[in-house]
């Protein structure tokens, strides 16, 4: 159970806003599906998707995340020890029926999105009233990317999501993709800028628990539930990082930060940070933390 408390403040004092569970599981599912991109960073594709297999079943929600990875979302009103295994069963079906998912993406989002699905990083997101310590331990024993997310209603018009555990998958396919991604920042590549990119990677991963990396050819994404930073392979004279932080809330500095809202670029985020030296990295750390908090 989360220790977070929410207070309503007035001139006369404060009162505790008592958290509560949904009346029925469908209430949580309907709310998240209606706002899936804002809440989870996932584009909604389908609800109650019927799978074609001997045992049958319905996937609560299907989506595609910011990096093009397939996402299964399963919901439980309270605590249910079977939600992870249920989700993994659906994940196995999905990875064995890629054509069905590809067709769904093509129908909803078009051929370009369908051709760029990141099959190396499928995700399972479990949204439930709570999880046991055994659930938290279990996700670390699987080779898939799994997020355990606790929900709560507060009063009549507030809804909260809290990441309890987040684990990056270690499938053989994902490992092959990492080995092929020679353009990604590592210390042995790119000279001084490669060294700087590696230092950026270390800082971003160290911002807090539950940070996961997702690698694409054009960038490396850093996630909580959603991307909060995207690191571009180092250029000859600089390293570019795109952040989720709101550019209008930042004092922009020419040659260091730039508002790229509406401008095309690899990765996600509207605030571009240009790094050329270790000093630039030190200056950027407050922006990294701001973006991490926003994800």
UniProtKB/TrEMBL annotation:
Example GO molecular function: nucleic acid binding
Location of the DUF5655 domain: 195-292
Organism listed in the record: Streptomyces himalayensis subsp. himalayensis
Pfam families attached to this UniProt entry: DUF5655
Taxonomic path: Bacteria, Bacillati, Actinomycetota, Actinomycetes, Kitasatosporales
InterPro entries: DUF5655, tRNA_endonuc-like_dom_sf
Name of the protein described by the UniProt record: DUF91 domain-containing protein
Gene3D superfamilies: 3.40.1350.10
């Amino acid at each position: 159970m989360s220790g977070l408390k929410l207070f309503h403040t007035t001139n006369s004092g404060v009162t505790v806003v008592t958290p509560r569970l949904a009346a029925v599981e469908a209430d949580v599912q309907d709310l998240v599906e209606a706002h899936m991109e804002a809440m989870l960073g996932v584009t909604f594709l389908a609800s109650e998707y019927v799978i074609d297999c001997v045992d049958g079943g319905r996937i609560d929600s299907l989506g595609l995340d910011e990096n093009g990875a397939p996402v299964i979302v399963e919901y439980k009103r309270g605590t249910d020890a079977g939600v992870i295994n249920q989700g993994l069963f659906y994940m196995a079906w999905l990875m064995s029926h890629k054509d069905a998912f590809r067709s769904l993406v093509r129908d909803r989002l078009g051929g370009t999105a369908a051709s760029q699905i990141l099959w190396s990083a499928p995700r399972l997101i479990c949204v439930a009233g709570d999880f046991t310590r055994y659930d938290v331990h279990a996700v670390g024993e699987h080779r898939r990317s799994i997020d355990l997310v606790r929900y709560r209603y507060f009063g009549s018009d507030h809804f909260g999501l809290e990441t309890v555990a987040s684990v990056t998958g270690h499938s053989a396919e994902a490992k092959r993709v990492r080995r092929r991604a020679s353009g990604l920042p590592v210390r042995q590549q790119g000279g001084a800028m490669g060294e700087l990119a590696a230092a950026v990677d270390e800082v971003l991963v160290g911002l807090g628990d539950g940070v996961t990396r997702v690698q694409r050819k054009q960038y490396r994404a850093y996630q909580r539930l959603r991307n909060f930073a995207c690191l571009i392979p180092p250029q000859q004279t600089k390293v570019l990082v795109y952040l989720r932080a709101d550019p209008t809330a930042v004092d922009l500095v020419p040659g260091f930060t730039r508002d790229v809202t509406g401008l095309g670029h690899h990765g996600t985020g509207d605030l571009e940070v240009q790094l050329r030296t270790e000093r630039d990295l030190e200056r950027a750390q407050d922006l990294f933390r701001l973006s991490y908090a926003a994800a």
